[in-house]
Amino acid sequence: MPAKDRPVILSARGVWRIFRSGGIEVPAVRGVDLEVRQGEFLALMGRSGSGKTTLLNILAGLDRPTRGQVLLDGQDLTRVSERELVEVRRKKVGFVFQFYGLLPLLSAYENVELPLRVNGVPAGERRRRSIEALEKVGLAHRAHHRPYELSGGEQQRVAIARALVTRPLVVFADEPTGELDTATGMQIAGLLREMAQREGITVVTATHDPVVAGMADRVVVLVDGALAEGS
After folding, report:
1. Which residues are registered as beta bridge partners of 44?
2. Per-residue model confidence as pLDDT tens digits over 152-178
3. E strands within the chain?
4. Phi, psi (deg, nearest 5) at residue 195
5. Whole-angstrom Cα distance, residue 131 to residue 149?
6. Whether 139 contacts 171, CB under 8 Å
7. What percentage of the chain has pLDDT greater than the value 70?
8. Is 223 helix (H, G, I), strand (E, B) or coil?
9. CA–CA distance, 118 with 86 (Å, rounded to integer)
10. 230 pLDDT higher than 80
11. Can you give the pLDDT at residue 205?
């Protein structure tokens, strides 16, 4: 199905995020309107301090906007309770971070399995889905290795498997190639693209990396917290 015909899964309407410091208001995100469709791979780009990570966190339900509305799968994240927001993050959203975010004492398999354990998924299904997720990122053979035994690229693959395992609607990735060399970064960007194309999962990433942007379906540029003209 062409991207334009897919349903909108995520939208921001008039979103502002204002931080206050010493009595001074500092707008980090300014009046953003954005729609993202199911299975779309969207890259948020901009200089450091442009507001892209702040916007990503708001879209993911990790932060609340000062004003405006964020809808995920029709649910208004700005109106739900903290408990409901936690449920959204656990069941509808996956996260991939620049520094991987793996627990060092757990194996790759245990890191991937952990969100399912938290969600109360039965043991047999946890195992099946965790191995399946590791197979999708080409790391089933490293399932019992701990993070310190894995390369940076392998650790990020584990992080992607962990994001996939809950079968989320949207995966948010914050600078997912920031700590990787160019070749490995291309592999990770390719995995994110495959996630969108093959799994139908929406992927939204904040990135400086032109390689990631080049693989995205669409690039949105932020300048001083606002969408650049034409984005």
Report:
1. 206, 220
2. 989 989 999 999 899 999 999 998 888
3. 8-21, 24-37, 41-45, 67-72, 75-76, 93-96, 170-174, 202-206, 218-223, 226-227
4. -55, -45
5. 18
6. no
7. 97
8. strand
9. 12
10. no
11. 94
